[in-house]
Amino acid sequence: MKIDPLIQSWHAEMTAVRRDIHAHPELGFEEERTSAIVADKLREYGCEVTTGIAKTGIVGTIRVGNSPNSIGLRADMDALPMEETNTFAHRSRHKGKMHGCGHDGHTTMLLTAARYLSETRKFQGTVHFIFQPAEEGPGGGRVMVEEGLFQKFPCDAVFGMHNRPSLPVGKFQIRSGPMMAGAGSFDITIKGKGTHGARPESGIDPVVVASHIVTAAQTIRSRTLSPHDPAVLSITQVHAGDAYNVIPETAVLRGTIRAFRQEVMDAQMQGLARIASQVAAAYGATAHCDIRQGYPPLVNHPEEAAFIADVAASLVGEENVNRNGALVMGSEDFSYMLNAVPGAFILTGQGGSGDHGGSCEVHNPGYDFNDEVLPLGATLFARLVEAKLGTAAS
User: Fold this and answer.
1) What is the residue-wise DSSP string for 146-212?
2) In the 8-state DSSP scheme, what is residue 304?
3) Which residue in 1, 20, 102, 252 has the most C-beta neighbors within 10 A?
4) What is the SS3 assignment for 47?
């Protein structure tokens, strides 16, 4: 691996910063301590710093020369609302909060890239270091875009990355076009007529209605969508009743919808609403559907996907960059940024060796970011800038 020697020399410092952030996790739009660390370090490195974007978001900027060319690099900062089971010294100190997805590592890699680029300045143009809050559900990427991120900080292209424990250290995975699924969620409240469990004829059983909706909803995928369009509709919660001998008045279904094209997301949401309301009506009940679009599908732009893959290959070799990686059913609100500006998102291997990393998947209570990856990720961020805004390129 061709890790920059200067960045490699900072590995111990990077590890200390990453573990400090890990020990003090903060949830979406609450990243006050993390944002303060990021802002202080960016100022220390000589960056222009703008705070308060999407409440706790930060943008650091470096300008070199008079070139109008620009690039954005993004890292997420928030933690998950889950309990950590690790016992190492840098485990979470906040009950019910954990860096279970590696955003502590992403933030540290981007901070280190900012430090390197501010010292070396081997480019002509402008770099914006985008530290985003609230990726884990609240949609900080959407809020940053809606608050004028790319109007205030214009970027010719924007790039992001995410660790992947199932990939060994030193390997990357990407694909052009749709790469990560869009996500939606739903609550369906079925209202029947409650009655004694021994006298079902005097009521309308919402549990029976809910059961038929669960079954019929599966035909949306199997009978209304093309088999060439990957999609998921999962009903993950069923809630009804409190007693053995009472047919309840209501039942509630909840779940998630995933797809890689917005048209398929729309078809699933419309189909679910239609089936729920009409199945309920067939049994004399009603169904109130609250079906919400979440993150849109993450779609990499072809030119930018090829570019970041090329840069990654220059570091680890072409044989270690999968340019046609598998579709990922997980969702990412970097998709909002890619819908606004050309760019690409790459997966970075962190499985295998390391003190704690690589042992389990993200969102697991025993997860920890693999600090071995920090210098490689920071080098990739730095080389993206030098390749995009290098003197020869501009």
Assistant:
1) HTTHHHHS--S-EEEEEEEEEEETT-EE-BSEEEE-EEEEEEEEEE-B-EETT-GGGSB-HHHHHHH
2) H
3) 102
4) coil
DSSP conformational letter for 236 = E
Q: What is the mean pLDDT of residues 117-125?
A: 97
Instruction: Return the closest-CA partner of residue 356 out of 127, 165, 228, 128.
Output: 165
Task: Return d(Cα 62, Cα 340) in angstroms, integer.
Answer: 22
Angle, helix 103-120 to helix 374-389, in steps of 10 degrees: 50
Phi, psi of 128 (to 5 degrees): -110, 120
Tokens 């990560």 belong to 180
Average pLDDT over residues 142-168: 97
Residue indicated by tokens 């620009």: 70
Percent of the chain with pLDDT over 70: 97
Instruction: Answer yes or no: are the C-beta atoms of 340 and 303 closer than 8 Å.
Output: no
Residues near 83 by beta carbon (within 8 Å), at least 6 away in sequence: 95, 96, 98, 365
Beta-sheet strand order (sheet of 70-76): 48-53, 57-64, 125-132, 70-76, 158-168, 343-351, 172-173, 321-322
> Would the pTM of this model clear 0.85, i.e. be above it?
yes
Is the confidence at residue 321, as pLDDT, over 60? yes
Residues sharing a CB contact under 8 Å with residue 19, sequence separation 6 or more, in sequence order: 89, 90, 104, 371
Q: What mean pLDDT comes out for the span 42-60?
A: 98
Strand partners, 257: 184, 233
Can you give the C-alpha Rg of the chain in angstroms?
24
Q: From CA 278, how far away is CA 274, in angstroms rounded? A: 6
CA dist 243 and 302 (Å) reads 57
Q: Using CB atoms within 10 A of its CB, is residue 151 exposed (0-12), middle (13-18) or buried (19+)?
A: exposed
Please tell me the predicted confidence (pLDDT) of residue 390: 86
Rounded to 10 degrees, the C-alpha dihedral 162/164/169/170 comes to: -50
Cα three-residue angle 368-370-373, rounded to 5 degrees: 150
> If 0-12 CB within 10 Å is exposed, 13-18 middle and 19+ buried, where does residue 342 land?
middle
